[in-house]
């Protein structure tokens, strides 16, 4: 495969198999990698095809960057979010992420309770336990509530660094959040807000929100914004191998980072084309 991306390449979206693409990329090319793979739920997931097109100003709905677009719903497709051997699928991709991180780089792996504990063991082996930085809990409150167990209302994001002595982390640039008990701190602190901890209370993408694309597994920009702010600097390159709706690219653009997004779904590529119209598209 010819080189599809090199340090210094423009923002790029690749339609193809992410393992094949990852293996073609140069070593140490990215300061930040975010992975949001299938969660191995064991269920058949429902996805409706969307045809997204740019619209004249004032027509359609307004999305990212104030751009107008229309979305026409089409056929419903289904895919099995289950694997005979999930780790035979995921582990080779994790191996590539370690190679692709530069010496100051950080990996964020976004899963839920089904595979997060196995992922911790796998990443400890691949990166080394000393490279484990954080377990982030993204807590939300939506969907059904079980009465036979505690309802599952969080995702887990495991954070590993390439080099525990040199990794990049800039907490000063991270958006602050309100104190839960503002009366217990000074008015100045309450006005400024506090830095997030490793538990992030954040809503899902609102049904009628401006950033919503209609993509089934879209993650909110607020979650990716914290990740990109903390673990990269303006001008750095960010990689997302399971790009989906393109949230990583949208946030990277807003924060002045460069990005490479990869997905094998034609639906995902269509959504990203509309959301990120300035990106270069590569078919593999």
Describe this entry's structure for a reader:
The protein has 284 residues and is of the alpha/beta class. The protein has seven helices and twelve strands. The protein has helices at residues 18-24, 86-100, 116-127, 187-192, 221-231, 247-254, 266-275; strands at residues 12-15, 30-35, 43-54, 61-62, 68-81, 101-111, 132-139, 154-161, 199-201, 237-240, 258-263, 280-283. The termini are close together. 33% of the residues are buried.
Helix content: 10-25%
Helix and strand string, N-terminal first? EHEEEEHEHEEHEHEHEHE
| Unreliable parts | 43-51, 75-81
What is the makeup of the main sheet? 9 strands, mixed
CATH topology term: Rossmann fold
Strand arrangement within the widest β-sheet reads: 9-7-8-6-2-10-11-1-12
CATH superfamily: Vaccinia Virus protein VP39
Mean pLDDT, all residues: 87
Query: Could you say what the CATH architecture is?
Result: 3-Layer(aba) Sandwich
Distance between the termini: 9 Å
CATH class: Alpha Beta
Number of strands: 12
Which range does the strand content fall in?
25-35%
CA-atom Rg in angstroms: 19 Å
> DSSP helix count?
7
- Derived from helix and strand composition plus strand pairing, the structural class reads alpha/beta
Shape: globular
List the domain count as a whole number.
1
